[in-house]
Write a structure and sequence with these properties.
The structure is a single chain. The protein is mainly alpha-helical and 148 residues long. The mean pLDDT is 78. It is 77% helix and 3% strand. The longest helix has 33 residues. Strand 1 and strand 2 form a beta hairpin. The chain folds into two domains: 58 residues; 72 residues, no CATH class. Keywords: Membrane, Transmembrane, Transmembrane helix.
Length: 148
């Protein structure tokens, strides 16, 4: 496909999306006006349609200004994803260090039940956080084998 065909394809897709959003906004309002509903109901329909189109197209916006203070929607979402990624890395490091320390200290014979519970907690954390680090897997296996 040539460059101009790709540009036209992208243009028509973007144009189609814009037309779809306009239909989503104005079709319900046109129906409400056609059946002679009160202006309050038409306004509620307009606000609901605009809100729906905003939510569907939220990834298109860099910022969304409300009043004098700006609310940066997309940047806040991206920063939250970055923070969650950092938290997952910290949790992985914490689990690894805890397992290393537990393996160094060893397990006392009278604390086997607590150690089994601790191993289960580590396994749950590893599964919930999708930790696939081979070093963590090696240490959890070593910890479980020390219990037995």
């Amino acid at each position: 496909m040539s460059v101009t065909k790709k540009k036209w394809k992208v243009f028509f897709i973007d144009f189609g999306i814009k037309i779809l959003f306009l239909i989503i906004i104005f079709a319900p309002i046109s129906i409400l006006i056609l059946f002679n509903y009160n202006w309050q109901i038409v306004t509620i329909g307009l606000v609901a349609s605009a809100l729906f189109s905003f939510i569907c197209g939220i990834n298109k916006f860099q910022t969304f200004k409300i009043g004098k203070d700006g609310v940066e929607v997309k940047k806040a979402v991206e920063e939250a994803k970055d923070v969650l990624g950092e938290i997952n890395r910290v949790v992985k490091d914490y689990v690894l260090l805890s397992l290393l320390n537990a393996n160094k200290i060893g397990i006392k014979p009278d604390e086997i039940i607590e150690s089994v519970d601790e191993a289960d907690k580590y396994s749950i954390i590893i599964q919930e956080r999708n930790i696939t680090d081979p070093e963590v897997s090696k240490q959890i296996k070593k910890f479980k084998s020390n219990i037995l």
